[in-house]
């Protein structure tokens, strides 16, 4: 019986292996292309810093391998993000044959909303939040204190902020999904608002290394997103009640 089960699983195993190989190949290809444009990508990352502190037009590196590794990490991050649509497509091709039509529509909707919200969060961080956070940090510079920012640390900080806001913008979506799937009751997030607010403040404080102003700049959008999630949960709960009433 075990041999029969293994024989039945063999085609799925081969297909999964093929999908994984194609996904890793896509990441490697996009990473290689991104590395070719590494100077342009680094310049884009520096734009929020130049908006915050125009006097600083160059970054420095203090180790021989730092510039190479920093560009490589940046290229890999761009390669991973750039290959995500293709990776999702490979996951879809692997999972779709076993899903019902209703489940396929649900998965497509989830992927579309999650991708759109993450992209919106990253763009918000790049164009709105990051320049203001950097402006606060660079406000300490003066005649007696000149900033000399390291390339690797700055790129890591920028990537972390983009990732943080991208994930943060998933908050309303995750709240709605938790409510619709029955993991929590409709009024759970309203009743536990104070605890979630405290958690948001702690996370923001840790991500900004304890700077109070930066903590406020990061936590305020998260508070708004949390409230947007509560509103979205109420809207979907109302729609579900209307649908149930029509069915009755």
Number of strands: 0
Q: What letter string, H or E per element, gives the SSE order?
A: HHHHHHHHH
First-to-last CA distance: 47 Å
Largest sheet: none
Global mean pLDDT: 81
Secondary-structure content class: mainly alpha
Number of helices: 9
Helix content: over 70%
Rg from C-alpha positions? 23 Å
Shape: flat
**Beta-strand content estimate:** under 5%
Low-pLDDT runs: 1-9
Please outline what is shown here.
Helix content is 81%, strand content 0%. It has helices spanning 2-36, 38-52, 66-95, 101-138, 151-168, 171-180, 188-191, 193-207, 212-247.
Would you mind describing this structure in some detail?
- The chain has 248 residues and is an all-alpha fold.
- The protein is built from nine helices and no strands.
- The protein has helices at 2-36, 38-52, 66-95, 101-138, 151-168, 171-180, 188-191, 193-207, 212-247.
- α2 crosses α4 (101-138), α3 packs parallel to α5 (151-168) and α8 (193-207) runs antiparallel to α9.
- It is flat.
- Residues 1-9 have low confidence and may be disordered.
List key phrases describing it:
248 residues, mainly alpha, 9 helices, 0% strand, disordered N terminus
Secondary structure elements and pairings:
Layout: H1 2-36, H2 38-52, H3 66-95, H4 101-138, H5 151-168, H6 171-180, H7 188-191, H8 193-207, H9 212-247
């Amino acid at each position: 019986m075990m041999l029969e089960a293994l024989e039945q699983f063999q085609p799925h195993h081969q297909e999964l292996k093929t999908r994984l190989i194609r996904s890793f190949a896509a990441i490697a290809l996009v990473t290689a292309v991104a590395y070719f444009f590494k100077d342009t990508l680094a310049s884009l990352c520096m734009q929020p810093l130049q908006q915050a502190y125009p006097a600083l037009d160059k970054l420095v590196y203090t180790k021989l391998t730092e510039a190479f590794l920093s560009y490589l990490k940046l290229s890999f991050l761009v390669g991973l993000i750039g290959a995500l649509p293709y990776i999702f497509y490979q996951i879809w091709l692997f999972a779709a044959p076993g899903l019902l039509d209703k489940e396929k529509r649900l998965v497509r909707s989830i992927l579309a909303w999650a991708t759109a919200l993450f992209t919106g969060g990253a763009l918000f961080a790049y164009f709105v939040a990051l320049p203001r956070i950097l402006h606060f940090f660079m406000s300490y510079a003066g005649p007696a204190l000149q900033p000399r920012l390291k390339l690797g640390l700055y790129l890591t900080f920028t990537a972390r902020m983009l990732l943080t806001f991208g994930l943060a913008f998933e908050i309303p979506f995750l709240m709605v999904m938790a409510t619709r799937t029955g993991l929590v009751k409709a009024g759970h997030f309203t009743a536990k608002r104070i605890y979630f607010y405290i958690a948001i403040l702690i996370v923001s404080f840790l991500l900004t290394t304890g700077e109070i102003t930066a903590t406020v700049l990061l936590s305020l959008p998260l508070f708004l997103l949390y409230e947007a999630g509560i509103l979205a949960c109420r809207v979907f709960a109302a729609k579900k009640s209307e649908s149930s009433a029509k069915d009755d």
